[in-house]
Automatic annotation (TrEMBL):
Organism listed in the record: Holdemanella porci
Protein name per UniProt: RNA-binding S4 domain-containing protein
Domain of life of the native organism: Bacteria
GO molecular-function terms, A-Z: RNA binding
Annotated InterPro entries: Nucleotide-bd_a/b_plait_sf, RqcP2_RBD, S4_RNA-bd, S4_RNA-bd_sf
Record flagged with keyword RNA-binding: yes
Keywords annotated in UniProt: RNA-binding
Amino acid sequence: MSSFMVGHEVFISQMKDQIRIFQKQNRPIMTCFLSISEQSILQSMVPKNICLVFDGGYDQAQRKIACFIPEGYVGFSDCVCLHATYNSKFKTLTHSDLLGCLMHSGIERSVIGDLIVQKEDLYIFCKEKISKYIIDNCTQISKCTVHFEECLDYIITENNKKEIHIMCSSLRLDSVVAQLSHCSRSEALKKIHAGFVKVNDVVLEQNLQLCNNDFVSIRKTGRFQFKEVVSTTKKGRLVLNFDQYI
C-alpha cells in the first residue's frame, strides 16, 4: 500500500460505495471537499469510463470537490466563493484566524475548501448548502468585523507557498520533522507519538520513510510537501527540497 493510501481505509470504502451508486443510478454525485491525497486516491480508483471532475473554485486550489458526471450533464459543481474585506490597521488576520472562526461556529471541515487571506481580502470556498450559515454567523474574526457575501468575480493571486531546503541524515519521519520544527529527533518523536504530525492528512503515531510528494503537517509548525532529494553531501547527509505553505 502506498504512503498516500495509509490511514485512508474508511475513505476508500466510502468512495467505492459512491462509485457503485453512480454506476447503478447514472446521476451526478458530488463529494465533500477532498484533500490532495484523497483526490489522488480517488483518481486511482475510478474506472476510465467514468467522468470525474475536481473543482475547488480556482485553478490552484488544494481542497476540491469530486464530481461524478453523467454524459451530457452540465453545471456540475456546488462550490461557491464567499468574500469579505477587513481593516488590517489593528490586526492582521491569518489563515488560522479564518479557520478558527469557522470551526468555532460549528462548521465541519469537510464542507470547507481553501481559505485565502490576500492582504485585506478574505475568501472562503465552501459547499453551497453552508454558505448562508457562514454569511449569517461568521461576522467577527478575532477583533475584526467582517461581512461575507457570495462572490462570482474574483482573482486569486496570492502565492501561498515557498521553496525551502533542509539537510537530514535520512528520509525517516522523525529526522525530517526535527529539521522542519528546529528541534531534536527525540522531541520530533514525541510530536509523532503524541499525534501532532500528519502525513498525507493522516495522523501517524509511528515512524516511516517519506516518499516524493508526501505532505507533512506539524502542529504549531506548518504544512510542507516533500518534493525531492536534491543532493547528498560529502558526509552522506541528504539535502531535501520542500514546498512550505504560508
